[in-house]
């Protein structure tokens, strides 16, 4: 029950974040601030692919493993970017939370 809730929460979050990454003027500015403007669209597509993979992974476990692994790595690098920019705890917290959430999903689905 908790695992399914975590999967759906993460999946919907990344579908939303990925779409926002592709369409939001704020995200355009953020990726410029990160010094990663050329990777904004790729990041958005990867987030949406990861979210979709988590949802489909509810029915086909290899996709759950791929999606949670990929999103964990993506959030790890997001956390590194936040540290590099010295963004502080509150701005770094979402990347850390979603990294841990997807590591939990990966761990729990292999039990």
From TrEMBL:
InterPro entries xref list: DoxX (IPR032808)
Source domain of life: Bacteria
Transmembrane segments: 6-30, 65-81, 88-108
Major subcellular location class: membrane
Cellular component, GO, one term: membrane
Keyword Protease included in the entry's annotation: no
Keyword Repeat: no
Subcellular location: Membrane
Keywords: Membrane, Transmembrane, Transmembrane helix
Protein's membrane topology: Multi-pass membrane protein
UniProt-recorded name of the protein: DoxX family protein
Source species of the chain: Flagellimonas ochracea
Phylogenetic placement of the source organism: Bacteria, Pseudomonadati, Bacteroidota, Flavobacteriia, Flavobacteriales
């Amino acid at each position: 029950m908790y695992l399914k809730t975590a999967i759906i929460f993460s999946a919907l979050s990344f579908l939303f974040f990925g779409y926002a990454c592709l369409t939001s003027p704020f995200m355009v500015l953020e990726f410029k601030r990160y010094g990663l403007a050329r990777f904004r669209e790729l990041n958005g597509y990867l987030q949406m692919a990861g979210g979709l993979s988590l949802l489909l992974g509810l029915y086909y476990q290899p996709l759950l493993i791929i999606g949670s692994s990929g999103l964990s790595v993506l959030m790890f690098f997001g956390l590194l970017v936040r540290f590099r920019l010295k963004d502080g705890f509150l701005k770094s917290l979402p990347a850390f939370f979603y990294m841990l959430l997807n590591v939990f999903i990966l761990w729990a689905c292999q039990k």
